[in-house]
UniProtKB/TrEMBL annotation:
Its EC number is 1.1.1.203. It is an enzyme of class 1 (oxidoreductase). This is Uronate dehydrogenase. The lineage of its organism: Bacteria, Pseudomonadati, Pseudomonadota, Alphaproteobacteria, Hyphomicrobiales. It comes from the Bacteria. The keyword Metal-binding does not apply. GO terms for molecular function: uronate dehydrogenase activity. Residues 7-168 form the NAD-dependent epimerase/dehydratase domain. Belongs to the NAD(P)-dependent epimerase/dehydratase family. It comes from Pseudochelatococcus lubricantis. Keywords: NAD, Oxidoreductase.
């Protein structure tokens, strides 16, 4: 029997949402696909909810009858304040209010490395290091990590906040040789987050079993996530096509990589 009756997946049309749509299928009787546009290829175990996360009423309504929420919708890069505010901050508040009003037991949230992007790689931080965002995007991830903490402490809604590093079809640059999370491992991580018996409020890094380890995920071992992939098969090709970067550059020094070199998104020309 499936573990959940109905899971709401926000961001269902996105890069990771598209992968999770297939990956979550065994875990729930129904997957409700949350997106801004309608799908025309619904499988028999799928239904849809078309809404913008900035719309409080519609977002709360989309959570009705869902016993779990996998929240992967929102701006996935540094963006102007208004976008961050509407999609990530207000949108996530609406999701958590939906969980509270409609009785979802657990939320799995796509946080990001950019919540702690200004920590130096050599610090080898654990999941309980102080937050250190590298962007407004990172600040929005800090907000939701904190919001979800409140909803656990006050309302008993469990959350797993996944600080995903770089989840792409394959590592695109040298940083991704240590920050890579394969799609299959991303699905394993979300599955572990949904099926671990007790998670309370958990923060976990989201990485594959890459050879170079930059952080310590021991504080999330109770999830039982075991990565099976690694960036190593891609190393030779990545190193051959990308020059050795300056080791003192902010993009190399900090976990957040190139986000640490971005300008401010609300300046007229943020990235000259
Ligand atoms: N892929 C990665 O490497 C990575 C790393 C860290 C965190 N994340 C997080 O994982 C989540 C998914 O990332 P992704 O790589 O699939 O990005 P993506 O941009 O492909 O997916 C995000 C989805 O959210 C939707 N969305 C954006 N604003 C919305 C709004 N206002 N209302 C409703 N839907 C909205 C988009 O249409 C899109 O389908 C994001 O929260 C992102 O911050 C991704
Ligand atoms: O740092 C990274 O590699 C990734 O961080 C994530 O938060 C972003 O959604 C993704 O677009 C970045 O490429």
């Amino acid at each position: 029997m499936a573990r959940y009756e109905r899971i709401l997946l926000t961001g269902a049309a996105g890069r990771l949402g598209t992968e999770l749509r297939k990956g979550l299928a065994p875990l729930a009787g129904k997957i409700r696909l949350g997106a801004r546009n309608a799908f025309d290829d619904l499988a028999s175990n799928e239904e849809q909810a078309v809404f913008d996360l900035a719309d409080m009423e519609a977002t709360i309504e989309a959570t009705r009858d869902c016993d779990a929420i996998v929240h992967f919708g929102g701006a996935s890069l540094e963006s102007p304040w208004q976008t961050i505010l509407d999609a990530n901050i207000r949108g996530s508040y609406h999701v958590y209010e939906g969980a509270r009003k409609h009785g979802a037991r657990r939320v799995v949230y796509a946080s990001s490395v950019h919540a702690i992007g200004y920590h130096e790689i050599e610090a080898h931080i654990g999941v309980d290091a102080p937050v250190r965002p590298d962007s407004l995007y990172g600040v929005s991830k800090n907000f939701v990590e904190s919001l979800s903490r409140l909803y656990w402490d006050k309302f008993g809604i469990e959350s797993v906040c996944l600080r995903i590093f770089s989840s792409f079809p394959e590592p695109a640059d040298r940083r991704m040789l240590w920050s890579y999370l394969s799609f299959a491992d991303c699905i394993r991580l979300v599955e572990a987050s949904l099926t671990a018996p007790r998670v309370g409020h958990t923060i976990s890094f989201g990485l594959s079993d890459n050879k170079v380890k930059t952080v310590d995920n021991g504080g999330a071992s109770h999830l039982g996530y075991i990565p099976r992939d690694s960036s190593e098969p891609f190393r030779a090709a990545v190193e051959a096509r990308t020059p050795l970067p300056d080791p003192k550059a902010a993009a190399v020094k900090y976990l957040g990589g190139w986000f640490c070199e971005l300008g401010h998104p609300d300046d007229e020309k943020p990235n000259p």
